[in-house]
Each structure stands twice: as C-alpha cells, then as structure tokens.
Amino acid sequence: MATDGRTFLDGTLENETVTRRRALAGGGLLAVAVVLAALNLRPSVTSVGSVLDEMGATLGASATWAGALTTMPGLCFALAGLAAPYLARRIGLGTAVAVALAVLTVGLLVRVLNGPAVVLAGTLVASAGIALANVLIPVVVKASFATRIGLMTGVYTAALQAGGAAGSALTPPLGSAFGGWRAGLGSWAVLAALALVLWLVAMRRRDGNVSSAPRTAGGGRSLLRNRLAWTVTLFFGSQACFAYIMMGWLPQVLMDAGVSRTAAGLLVGLVSLIGLPVSLLVPPLATRQNGQSRWIVGLGVFGIAGVTGLMVAPSAAPLLWSVLVGIGMSVFTLAITTIALRARTSADTAKLSGMAQGLGYLFAAAGPFLFGLLRDLTGDWTVPFAMLLAVLLGQLTFGWFAGRPRYV
C-alpha cells in the first residue's frame, strides 16, 4: 500500500510539473503570437504611401481615388473597431483575433489582384481586420498577462511601430525584387498568414486562457454613460489626432521650412523610430506606480515643445523639433496601457477598447483634414499649429484624469 501511495503521489507531482511547463510554454508562444500579430497591424497602411505614385500611374487612378485610399483605413478603424467587443462575446476572444488576422490576410491579397475599385475593396477588408485586432489584442494582454501588462503592452506597441516603419521602408525594395508594386504590397499577406498560423497554434496550447476570457461578464452594461470611459476615449482620440496630423503633414511642414525632401523623409522616419525605445521602457515603469498621469503629461509636454518649435521657428532646429514630436507621439503606448488598466475584467476591457479606439479614431480622422483646410484658408502654418496645440492641451487634460487609478 505504501508503494502504491508513493507511486500515486509521485505521479501526481509529475503531472503537475508537466502541466506547469506546458502552461509556461503556451504563455511564451502566445507572447510571440501577440508580437507577430502586432507587426501586421500597420504595414497595410504605411506600405501604400511609398508606392502610391506607381499605383496611380499603373491604374490610371485620380487624385480623388488616392485620397479615398489613404483616408479609408482611419475611418474603418473607427467603424469596425466598434464591432470588435460584440464579435468577441459571440465567438470568443481567441477566435475573434484569428478571424481578424484571416480577414487581414484576405484583404492584403485581394487588393493587388485588379483595378482601382478592387484595390479600394481589398484595403477596406484589410483595414477591417486591423481594426478588430487593434481592439482585441489589448484584451488578450489583460486576460493572459495580467501580471505583465506594462511589459507586454510595451512590447506590443513597439512591434506596432516597427511594423509601420517596415511597411514604408521595405515595400519599394520588395516590389523591385518581385516585379512591381503589386508584389511589394502583396508580400505583406505572407507575414499576416504566418501570424494567423502561429495564433491558431498558440490558441490550442493556451485555449483556456484566451478563448474563454471575453465570455466572462457577457453583454452587460454599456460604457456610453460612463464618465471615465469617455475620458479615456477623448485621451485616446486626441493623441491619435496628433499622430495622424504629424504623420500626414510633417514632411510638408519641414520642406516649406527649407528642409530637402530626402532629409524630411529621414526626419519623419526618426519620429517613428523614437517610439520604439519609449514603448519598451515607459509602460513597465508606469504600471508599477499607482497612476500613470504624470507619465502621460510628461510625454505630452515634449509634444507641445516640438509643435511650438515647428510653429515659431521651424527652420531653426528641425532635428530637435522632430525628436520632441517623436517623444510626444510615444504617449500612444500609455493610451493602450490605460485601456487595460482602467477596466477590472476582460469583458470591460473589450468594451473600453472598442469605445476608445472606435470613437477615438473617428475623431482623429478629422484632424489631418482640418489641419490642411486651415492651411489653405490662412496661407501659413500658424493657425493649423494653434489648433494642434489645443488638441495637445486636451490630450494632457484628458490624459491626466485617464491615468488616475480608477475603473469603469
């Protein structure tokens, strides 16, 4: 009997050890899957600008078509993002992310198959997949890495920015190597398909944690009457508006100040690269503290300094202004972190993420248009930058309150 009991006890311990090792391996695989998914959430957008002139010439498309192509992703991020929490409740979080990656892959393939209308349709489909994943992956971080939210959010947002930089930098050489802009843009479908395969494998290894998390708390209450949810939404929207304006208009502002086209392109690339180390360092530090308000305001002050320099003396120190703007735009990583920290449950995180990103991107989409309109109406950059400073002051205000330790 003693031998049997010892055997039973040893067997139990061995099974527990194996289970623990499998859980750790599954968690590591899921972390890699999150990073690979994040790498896919920007190239669909950033890859277009680098080959837009070639696309227009090949397709015989108008400037209006080009404007629709570049505006569509932001609007789709807003509209499709609002549907993400509902989809997660219906089919489960892990399956919903898989659907998002599958939709992205299909869209990337479709948009290089035919003429202008098909390119727009494929871009719409790909942007819908990105919008769903934008909302749902922060929920995965909340559900599966609750003790590592800062670290995983930092890695996730760094991967987002790296993917965006790769999209603009690598698409032209990919096109040259494989036969034109269609091949260059279509190449990103391979990365999306790899992310989908790895995600499906990670789900099988860690299905209890990923797939069931969003089903908790069901449909439940709406956050549309929640003051904190609106505060987080306005914070997210204002920082996204700042980023959209800078990404769209900074090259022209610098060139009008006497910077060459090549140098302006390098400075805009620098703005994106600055976000990588900030994304890796700041969220883990910020989440260790009781609130994130001081971090949010601190990064926002850098943005205000950079915009003020561009408005008052753009030619005096374009490198310095670009660096300051890049640090200021890095507040995006804290906007994502805040979404995860201001909700107690995965279900509420999904709702808050959908509301903040859906409505926030809708607000942000109007920013570049208004900035350009004010430039046309006034003939210089002073009034547009004054508008942008007002947006940044709103970001600081809403960010201060969003960073306080409360829950929706």
Mean pLDDT metric:
85
Instruction: Give a quick account of the main beta sheet: strands, pairing sense, barrel closure.
Output: none
Number of strands: 0
Q: What is the CATH architecture term of the largest domain?
A: Up-down Bundle
Residues in helix, %: over 70%
CATH class of the largest domain: Mainly Alpha
**Helix/strand structural class:** mainly alpha
Distance between the termini: 56 Å
Q: Work out the helix count.
A: 17
Return the string of H and E elements: HHHHHHHHHHHHHHHHH
Overall tally of structural domains: 2
Percent of residues in β-strands: under 5%
Structural Rg: 22 Å
Unreliable stretches: 1-25, 213-218
Query: What is the 3D shape?
Result: globular
As for the CATH topology of the largest domain, it is: Growth Hormone, Chain: A
Output the CATH homologous superfamily of the largest domain: MFS general substrate transporter like domains
Describe this structure as you would to a colleague.
- The protein is 83% helix and 0% strand.
- The chain is globular, with a radius of gyration of 22 Å.
- Helix 5 packs antiparallel against helix 6 and helix 13 (293-312) runs antiparallel to helix 17.
- The protein has 408 residues and is mostly helical.
- It folds into 2 domains: 24-215, Growth Hormone, Chain: A (Up-down Bundle), CATH 1.20.1250; 223-408, Growth Hormone, Chain: A.
- The chain has helices spanning 2-39, 43-49, 52-59, 63-91, 93-110, 116-144, 149-178, 181-186, 188-205, 207-210, 227-256, 261-287, 293-312, 318-329, 332-341, 346-378, 382-402.
- It is built from 17 helices and no strands.
